[in-house]
């Protein structure tokens, strides 16, 4: 008896596209009534100190000026054939301080115009409600998510979005990389207490408030429009044991669980036992109300989304050689090459994560960030037009997408793929523009100079062909 096999393919309705965040590409940080966000006082990203007020060296204040160039930029996305565009709404454009009772109409109107352009080209919007953009006032007056009152502010903000855009936007994400609050509490959670002074009791209470808020706005979304699909968003990083020693295996499992816990609550509606033990061991006792428990249990997410850039190792038995990474580094894997920023390049890790999350949660998965940050060089193309010959990016993305295709063949339900920084933008971790991810080069430099002109890289045409062929042009 012979068994026939079908070549691995992407589903016909697979959502191909790209992703950006308001604080990294919009600019216009004080235009049309917008208030300040935590990003406006982080001129060096997570690697440097915050400032008391916006400073000229903060590249995020201008970003790539999408606020004034959105028509041009969305047209470029359409030329690549995007099916979906993931972007975030800047909370402080809608509620400048965060605790007002009435929204800022000028901010709402801007996103109406963005959605108009996306509809013009038939591009599906995927909106992140909170992407490292907590209003600064909420950080300074309430200590961000450490305060339970933040739940109500977030509910009001989210309800405003759902009622305004709920017939135009089907797919929503609550918090970007929600587990990153463990590592960057100010950027991720608006927690104003310096990291070295933050009590674990306050950090984990803030995490609880975010999780309850996420479930609560999922409820609101489904009340406003039952057809809306709401997902959580996790910073995914598979941890491998550095050696076969059982102690290293357990260390890797514990590192994975720091990330699993956020998905477990979003999907299963309750705190897992391993997480509760961790809190007990730390002497942390959460304030959890009966209403909190009902909200978590009854309003779980429709799908799970995640970012994936790298894998890492863990060890309990050897000297630790820490690696770089997106907010968390882990231990260097000696078997893998690294990017210019020291991030391990591991395409198979993406297949591992997809299978792992599908087996664990059984919810549709959406890869909403993946890509290669690199120092691109602008050169003159054969047609005399500036370009970037970024074959290294093509190779990176091709190899990762091949592994996505393999995961789909494994039986994993994958909704789509939005590459990070599809147009060059300011890095969240380093606040640099020289760390480029895009298919489109933006003429702006780390010192703030440049014309902001857009140029198509070689990867622009490559990704266009991948989308047009529904992945058939990928090379195994």
Notable traits:
476 residues; alpha/beta; disordered N terminus; 8-stranded parallel beta barrel; two-stranded parallel ribbon; TIM Barrel
Written overview of the protein:
This protein is an alpha/beta fold. The protein has one domain: TIM Barrel, CATH 3.20.20.80. Helix content is 38%, strand content 13%. It contains 14 helices and 14 strands. The protein has helices at 22-25, 66-79, 91-94, 105-120, 136-142, 149-165, 185-189, 200-224, 246-268, 273-282, 290-298, 347-361, 391-409, 458-468; strands at residues 15-19, 84-88, 124-130, 171-175, 229-236, 239-241, 303-308, 312-314, 365-369, 379-380, 386-387, 414-420, 440-442, 454-456. The strands form four sheets. It has an eight-stranded parallel beta barrel, surrounded by five helices. Strands 6-8 form a two-stranded parallel sheet. Strands 10-11 form a two-stranded antiparallel sheet. Helix 12 packs parallel to helix 13 (391-409). The two termini are 29 Å apart.
